[in-house]
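Could someone model adenosine-5'-triphosphate with this protein?
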Amino acid sequence: MNDIILLKQGEIVLKGLNKKYFEQKLASNAARRIKPYGSFHIYTIQSTTYVEPQSDDCDMDGAFEALKTVFGVIALTRAAACEKTPEAIAAKAIDYLGDAMRAARSFKVETRRSDKSFPMTSIQLSQYVGGELADAFPDTAVDVHDPELTVHVEVRDLAAYVHSAPVPGAGGMPVGSNGSAVTLLSGGIDSPVSSYMIAKRGVRCIPVHFWAFPYTGEAAKEKVITLARRLTAYCGRMRLCVVPFTHIQEEIRDKCPEAYFTIIMRRFMMRIADRIARDNGCGALVTGENLGQVASQTMQAMGVTEAVSSLPVLRPLIGFDKEEIVRLARKIGTFETSILPYEDCCTVFTPRHPELRPTAEETAEAEAALDVDALVEEAVMGIEYVKLEVERLEC
Ligand code: ATP
Ligand code: MG
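Reply:
Sure, complex below.
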């Protein structure tokens, strides 16, 4: 008889009539994520999603690790299966939770019974299993009010299950349940974290990278592909858009005042991202901008940058300290790649004295010599698409 994995839903439990929709998204995201680990049956009952292996060769450790990064799950646990008799359940609890029982000073047993034909009530079964555990571990006291350890027993149709405290899940909402957005992904520390944060709110991400070859080399592109691939653990499979940006940057260098190079370049990023978003039914643009971090991230600069798109621009990191961003980057496994040396198109043709408080009128005038529509069209036509499947984690 196989162990199963139980996923405890996060904010989904607060949903009303549309709860089923969120639950289905969670189940299908979980199914896709653990497909590399074997064949599983996934279903939801009373705000718990059950993941049952369909054969003995399923990789349960791998599946459990992979499910820790599925958004919409607030906590998860592995449960051991046994025969549906009180004796077998008690024996399984003693064997499976022995270490946890020895480590705890007090415990209680909680039973859920979906098989109502089981000969004992939930309370009777809790008392019976509790008694057997107390005999087996005499140093661990019974405390039904404030126990250190709660032993869970579930009597279901096919088998009974025992498990202890769950581990934290990824939290958030199932990816895809809150629409989709274009996320601007550079090779830096911030933008992978901003993509992660917005995916956590249930948004499917389309990552876009602006690439100015040969000013930014093949290594810079590979780095962004690696970052996007890392993000698939959280965001699910994605298609990275690599936008050729060289001609636009050279045009800006040749035809615009130097103090405006960066702000004009960022407006092109927004225009192209806006176009990709509309072509793909996305509702927003996402950047890793952070108030005051660099000259292009003053309030005025951000206002002038976003004015060329009518979509909302989401900036999940706007109020974070660098330290907080770095902590998250380490947690999601992008930091080590982000700090590899590289050039970004932002660092090509950097003005010596960037305009810190650009106005919309001055910036429009500064870019007046450019054929904006033609440049956007040319860049969009040259997009290279990179398909990114979810990686199998090695445990
Ligand atoms: P990051 O660490 O994300 O690179 P940053 O602090 O270096 O951020 P900027 O280079 O000014 O800041 O970029 C601000 C945001 O603009 C980035 O977080 C990202 O969303 C977007 N961006 C910058 N360069 C690129 C690029 N080459 N391709 C796609 N998006 C980019
Ligand atoms: Mg950058």
